[in-house]
Request: fold
Amino acid sequence: MSGAGEALTILPMQLQVREAQSYPRSEAAWSPGAESRELEEEDHMATHKVVKHDEWLRARKRHLAKEKEFTRMRDQLSRERRDLPWELVEKQYTFQGERGTQTLSDVFEGRDQLVIYHAMFNPDTAGPHTTWTADAPCFVCSFWMDNVNGITVHLNHRDIAMAAVSRAPYPKLAAYKKRMGWGFPWLSSLGSDFNLDYRVSFTDEELKTEKVDYNYRLRPWGLTEAPGISVFLKDGGQIYHTYSTYERGLDMLNVAYHYMDLVPKGRDEVDSGADRWVRRRDEYQD
Reply:
């Protein structure tokens, strides 16, 4: 059986291969090498090793040992995440939704825990190089929110409220939510500092420097919006910010990707990210 050391050497290699995947870049993702990559993938499928059942079973058991080690590491990481210190939310944020003006406290809907998905949607800055339009959010964010819609009732029964927040005016959110048939709350933070404070929206001044504070580091970013998840806790009348994650940190919240990771072709998006293939659910051609 493989030991912990072997598993630890394998996992970083997997992460390196997939580092460029998932969330959209600030410009179109297609590159001239896309066609050649597809040919390479087809050739790999044609030449992949095929063995008898006994050898298949031995290989599967070796890999199972690594999977078990990864599960233990993930459980440990989750415990450490829950043990991170909290920060008190002292600013009063307001949002617009189907119930009118709501405070951050209202968004908890009587529960103690709240997860907010920061969806990229700002009609004022929509253009040819944004992943959102004047009437629809980022198409990759829409993919992520498809994953949210069916699970909110289960989260509610674990004392967790779930909502999405964007800078678009609420009527724009309501129209797209109706188009997609989503049932979870989606609130507008227009006029609030919420997106700026949780580092998923950026001012013109920040963008001009070509170095914005996103995902806990200064880095180039060409858009006014960025994706993320933020977690809050209400305790004793106070609200605490417990966690935020961005970019690849969102992967674990997209169940579709977990299925793709099981199949032989994987995510099939090494160089371009999800914007190579993802469309809004009603915009696929077939």
